[in-house]
Backbone:
């Protein structure tokens, strides 16, 4: 077990909790007084020492050679923070130095902190983060080898910021400063309909540390499309050929869902890390077999639950995390309208898995993310009344129950002419609703005149309204702002995980729970809405 020794002179209970949250993913935090910490620094289990607000002269005589050193609000010989400014919002920028600790971090982000500029007297300390304060650029975090000095993170709130926390956690890793080579990525399925092959190619190309080396499609036109979209990409005719390509470290499966399990298993057996498009697969037994194979082979398995980074979902999640709704007990989501179902494989049960799986793999994932666990049982009612030329149901209403009484519903419908809210979340202190808004592109065409092209209703973020109950006054309504777009966040995290050791955002276990719910819903709908228990993970 790795131990991170935390030596702090400003250890209030809140500071202790904030430092513990920061350190825990990197090892067991052990708190020590500056006067007595010295001998512990040479402990064989100690992989990092975090100094927090410790006076100017740090005694490093005892520190072992491979131990990472991070000073928060204090410094080492050659670099130390100066005056701590009043807390406020500042803008932090990643410098041009290619430091592994800042790879793939947002180039610029706002942070609320009590910032202290770092004064550097030893020029071998290079700035990795800067802050502009009173129109002057100041080093805010500097690094030399395994030693990092931070003038940021003086408030507990700032330590919880995901960008700053990631930089500091990487600094706490003994390997945090080691450069790593790029990983070769191969895309399996370069399709024309959803175009997910192209999406992945674009994302991989934009992500430092990932390099698109190959694509595979059984259709010759799609192979040609991949070669022309991404110069230098090797086009393979079969999954087997791509699996045998040694330049491919990571394979992204962008095939229709019915093929996910079999192809992903073959790629894992070929010792590739595997990304699977949503849904992970159609049967929970296959999900468990894939997870077992990945674990046994030491490979990363993850699912492109791309909509976890949608702006409206992120805003809903933030409102809940900030406690604005109190404790949530009911979540309802909707997708659809009244129009002919799409004519691609998405509408064919035998290929897509059925109505539950297509949008359900995003919506049920959202619901499980918001509740933090899977339901114990599911009921689903389907209707087949209007669209006879496709096999998917016209409508599926999926209801989920948790053991403690919480509930949720996902409604997918092609026969709903008036759309209910996309999100409807009830908590003990308020209610949040997210309404679809019609987005259309209008233009004047020289030949046709006025042209109006409606966009798919589910692509634009919903309008979010939060209504909170105020004792004695009633209900106050607020419109929630959307956070910035996070381009290619899934792929950035994939590279962060594989190359920098950061936590994986989409664990296969979380997507397995989604499949367990979707499979139970399909069985319930087939049985006329009878309750079906959700299969727990193996060993539970
Ligand atoms: N994350 C998202 O938001 C999102 C959006 C759309 C689609 N998807 C998912 O992406 C996946 C792909 O969807 P799409 O719309 O791009 O599909 P698509 O039908 O457009 O493309 C699939 C491609 O795979 C090829 N193919 C099929 N079987 C093959 C095989 N065994 N070997 C080699 N090539 C084969 C086909 O020729 C086709 O070109 C699906 O799982 C879908 O659910 C995810």
Residues:
């Amino acid at each position: 077990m790795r131990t991170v020794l935390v030596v702090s002179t400003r250890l209030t209970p809140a500071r202790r909790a904030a430092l513990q949250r920061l350190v825990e993913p990197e090892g067991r935090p052990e708190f020590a007084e500056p006067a007595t910490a010295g001998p512990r620094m040479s402990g064989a289990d100690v992989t990092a020492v975090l100094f927090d607000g410790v006076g100017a002269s740090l005694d490093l005589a005892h520190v072992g050679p491979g131990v990472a050193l991070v000073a928060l609000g204090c410094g080492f010989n050659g670099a130390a923070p100066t005056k701590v400014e009043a807390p406020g919002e500042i803008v932090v920028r990643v410098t041009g130095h290619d430091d592994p600790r800042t790879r793939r971090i947002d180039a610029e982000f706002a942070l609320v902190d009590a910032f202290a500029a770092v004064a550097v007297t030893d020029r071998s300390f290079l700035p990795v983060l800067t802050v502009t304060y009173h129109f002057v650029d100041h080093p805010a975090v500097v690094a030399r080898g395994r030693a990092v000095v931070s003038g940021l993170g003086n408030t507990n709130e700032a330590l919880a910021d995901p960008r700053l926390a990631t930089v500091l956690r990487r600094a706490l890793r003994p390997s945090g400063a080691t450069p790593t080579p790029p990983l070769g990525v191969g895309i399996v399925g370069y399709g024309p309909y959803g175009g997910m092959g192209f999406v992945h190619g674009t994302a991989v190309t934009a992500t430092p540390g990932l390099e698109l080396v190959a694509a595979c499609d059984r259709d010759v036109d799609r192979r040609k499309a991949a070669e022309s979209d991404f110069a230098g990409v090797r086009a393979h005719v079969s999954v087997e050929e791509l699996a045998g390509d040694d330049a491919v470290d990571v394979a992204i499966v962008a095939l229709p869902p019915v093929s996910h399990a079999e192809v992903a298993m073959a790629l894992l057996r070929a010792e590739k890390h595997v990304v699977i498009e949503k849904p992970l697969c159609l049967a929970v037994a296959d999900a468990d077999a894939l997870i077992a194979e990945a674990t046994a082979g030491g490979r990363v398995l993850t699912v492109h639950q791309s909509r976890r980074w949608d702006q409206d979902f992120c805003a809903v999640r933030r409102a809940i995390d900030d406690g604005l709704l109190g404790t949530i007990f009911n979540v309802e989501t909707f997708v659809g309208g009244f129009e002919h179902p799409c004519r691609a494989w998405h509408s064919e049960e035998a290929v897509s898995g059925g109505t539950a799986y297509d949008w359900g793999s995003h919506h049920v994932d959202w619901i499980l993310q918001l509740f933090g666990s899977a339901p114990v049982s599911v009921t689903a009612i389907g209707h087949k009344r209007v669209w006879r030329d496709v096999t998917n149901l016209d409508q599926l209403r999926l209801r989920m129950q948790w053991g403690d009484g919480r509930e949720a519903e996902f409604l997918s419908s092609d026969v709903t002419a008036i759309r209910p809210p996309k999100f409807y979340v009830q908590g003990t202190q308020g209610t949040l609703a997210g309404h679809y808004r019609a987005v259309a592109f209008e233009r004047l065409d020289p030949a046709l005149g006025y042209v109006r092209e409606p966009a798919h209703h589910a692509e634009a973020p919903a309008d979010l309204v939060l209504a909170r109950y105020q004792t004695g006054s009633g209900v106050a309504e607020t419109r929630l702002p959307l956070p910035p777009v996070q381009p290619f966040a899934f792929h950035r995290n994939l590279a962060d995980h594989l190359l920098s050791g950061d936590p994986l955002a989409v664990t296969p276990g979380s997507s397995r729970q989604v499949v367990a719910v979707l499979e139970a819903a399909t069985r319930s709908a087939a049985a006329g809405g009878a309750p079906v228990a959700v299969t727990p993970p193996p060993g539970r």
